[in-house]
Structures are given as structure tokens and as C-alpha cells.
From TrEMBL:
It holds the Pfam family TsaD. Binds 1 Fe(2+) ion per subunit. Its main location: cytoplasm. Substrate binds at T139, I140, S141, G142, G143, D172, G185, D189, N280. Keywords: Acyltransferase, Cytoplasm, Iron, Metal-binding, Transferase, tRNA processing. This is tRNA N6-adenosine threonylcarbamoyltransferase. It is found in: Cytoplasm. Its EC number is 2.3.1.234. Its cofactor is Fe(2+). HAMAP family: TsaD. Residues 26-314 form the Gcp-like domain.
Amino acid sequence: MKKPVYILGIESSCDDTSASVICDAKVLSNVVANQEVHSKYGGVVPELASRAHQQNIVPVVQQALEQANVTKEQLAGIAFTKGPGLMGSLLVGTSFAKSLALGLQIPLLDVNHMQAHILAHFIKDDESKIPTFPFICLTISGGHTQIVKVINHFEMEILGETIDDAVGEAFDKSAKILGLPYPGGPFIDKYAKLGNPKAYKFTKPKVGDLDFSFSGLKTGILYFIQKQQRINPNFVEENLNDICASIQFTIIEILMNKLKNAVKKTGIKQIAIAGGVSANSEIRNRLQLAEKHFGWKTYIPKFEYTTDNAAMIAITGYLKFLNNDFANADVTAKARLKVTE
């Protein structure tokens, strides 16, 4: 009988410290320590993030092993996020993973965070659908917005990407303009459910067929709110649900139009989403509707695999392990890393 392969994944690219143990593509544990410290600053403070990772990493890894009921000695390899991300945060995870792999004398597996968001779709659980190649993945998060053609596990091609800001930032900055707490994306989603998406019209940016731009939209929303508040200082409070619904409708329309263009261009009708913004209820609804309307086959990740988590790092490490694609001890963290690298 084949010996089970246990992989420990470590994720520390931004402000969440996470560790996960998987066994042959099945998640046994996925522990995430959120850093509350950033909410009062309205964004992630890199220096505070790396300090919090240093405090969290040992207990989080310990908890992941205990929850999985696995000892360190049973591990076959250690996967960690090499990049992209905040350099100070990445260094904590990289150093820890290297030391642990060296101490246990087991392989080290360096993982591209952006590839991991996409490869989270290959985690096996009872209700998961695994995409078949080739498929298109819309990767949407606070730092990235891109359409990726996934040819196989480790061969990907960027078809289009944002030329300025990421979609997650557009949600968070819009929320900030409305006086909502950070991170604001989930709040816009919550209030949008109660509002009229056609109440206010925002101009969609004009860029290439498969590229995105959100900076003009953010400015448009800011000017709109400022103008309305000059007329009625209580405009936001009185119309919050409608404003959120209209902002969300505009952003999701932009994403869906680009996906339709990608399907037209490639002829590929297998569509996946990945990244933090894929937790948004409206993009999930629209994709399910697209299955009926356009005959697409859509793959929507479970909520716990949308935001930064170590299960996606562990599954990517597992796939690399099967390929004997190991990292050297001199591997370094990279703050900037393309999904194709």
C-alpha cells in the first residue's frame, strides 16, 4: 500500500499567519491567526504584520499539527509562501520553514502565492468539483486582479490583468469613502444585498478587452459621494444600501464582461475564481447564472479557501512534491512574483 504523504503548509504573505496539514490532497487542518492590530489603521502596516507573524507562527504550526493528529516526524515535506507579498511577513514564514525542514531533514517546497490561490481548486473534499485542464481562472484579491489561462498545474498564462489597482482595493477604498470599517469589501457585500443595484450609475473604465482598471472608478465614486454630501450631509446614511449595491453591481459587471471576452477569445468554457474577493456573494451568484445562460462550467472555492490560507499552500506543495520539484536551502522570499514564475 502507498504510504500517505503529509505536507505542512505555511502562509505568511500579508497579515494572516496560517498553517495547514494535508494528506494526499485532503485537508486535515487549516489554522488561521488573523491580526486585529491593523483595523485601527485602515490598512495593513507591514512592520506590525511581520512582528505579529513572529509571535503567531510557532503556536499556529503547533495547533495545525495537533488538529491533524500528526507528528512532525510524519511530515514528508514543508511548503511555504515564497512570494508575492510583504517582504517582512514573507521572511518570517520562509525562515521558519527552512529551519524546520532542515531540522527534520525533509524536502522544502517553495510556493507561488498566486498559483496557490488557483490550485486551491485541487483540494479534495466531499463536495468539491476539480477543474479539468485547460480552464480560465479569474484571480481577484486585494493585491491582484487577473485572468489566467491554466494549462496544467504549473503552466499558466496571464491573459489580462489590472493596469493600476486591484479589485479588492476598489472595494476597500469605496468602503472607506462611505465610512465603513476595514476591510470594507465584506461590508459592501452585506449592505448591497438590501439595496437597489441600479440606483446610481458609475462609469466603467475603458481599457483593453481583457485588462482591468479600477483607479478611475474609485475617483468617480469619491467625487459622486462628495457632490451628494454637499447637497445632503446625510446622503450616505440615508442611502447606504443603494450606494453599496450600485458600487458592487458596477465592479461585478466589469469582472463578468472581461470573463465573457476571455471565453470568446479562447473558446474555453471552464471558469474558476480564486482569491479573497471570490468570497463576494454577487460574483458567486453571477457565475452560477452564467452556467445556465452561457453553458459555462464554473468552479467556486469554499469560503475558507478564498482568503489567504495555508491549505492552498499545502496543496500546491503536495503537487510539487509529486513532481519532485523541491527548493534548495538557499531559496529566498520575493515580494514581487508573477503567477507564471
